[in-house]
Specification:
Helices cover 3% and strands 49% of the residues. The protein is built from 1 helix and 11 strands, in the order βββαββββββββ.
Length: 122
C-alpha cells in the first residue's frame, strides 16, 4: 500500500520558517514527480511546488517562488519543503502527493498524504 506521511507543520509568526517533510515508500518515491499542494479554509486545493524524478526539474507556484524550496533525499525516500519568510496567507493544510506517470506537473497526482497544518500568525 502506498503511503505518504507529512510532518513538520505548526504555528509560527509571519517571517518565520518551517520545513515540511514527506516520507514515502520506495516505489512512490520513484514516481514521475513528487509535489506539495495546499488548501486554505474555504478555498480550493492549489499547487505549491513539484520536483521530477528524472532530471530533477523543479516547479513553483508564483506565490511561493523565492521563499519556498522543494528538495528530495533519495537515500531516505523523503521529500522536503523549506518555507521561509512565511506570510499569513500561507496558512493552509499542506499535502504531499505523487504523480506516477508523465503529465502536467500541477495536475493528475495519484497518491496523497493526510496533510499537515501550517498556521502563520500576523
Amino acid at each position: 500500500q502506498v503511503q505518504l506521511v507529512e510532518s513538520g507543520g505548526g504555528l509560527v509568526q509571519a517571517g518565520d520558517s518551517l520545513r515540511l517533510s514527506c516520507a514515502a515508500d520506495g516505489r512512490t518515491f520513484s514516481s514521475y514527480a513528487m509535489g506539495w499542494f495546499r488548501q486554505a479554509p474555504g478555498k480550493e486545493r492549489e499547487f505549491v511546488a513539484a520536483i521530477t524524478w528524472i532530471g530533477g526539474s523543479i516547479y513553483y507556484a508564483d506565490s511561493v517562488k523565492g521563499r519556498f524550496t522543494i528538495s528530495r533525499d533519495n537515500a531516505k525516500n523523503t521529500l522536503y519543503l523549506q518555507m521561509n519568510s512565511l506570510k499569513p496567507e500561507d496558512t493552509a493544510v499542506y499535502y504531499c502527493a505523487a504523480r506516477l506517470r508523465f503529465g502536467p506537473i500541477k495536475y493528475g497526482y495519484d497518491y496523497w498524504g493526510q496533510g499537515t497544518q501550517v498556521t502563520v500568525s500576523s
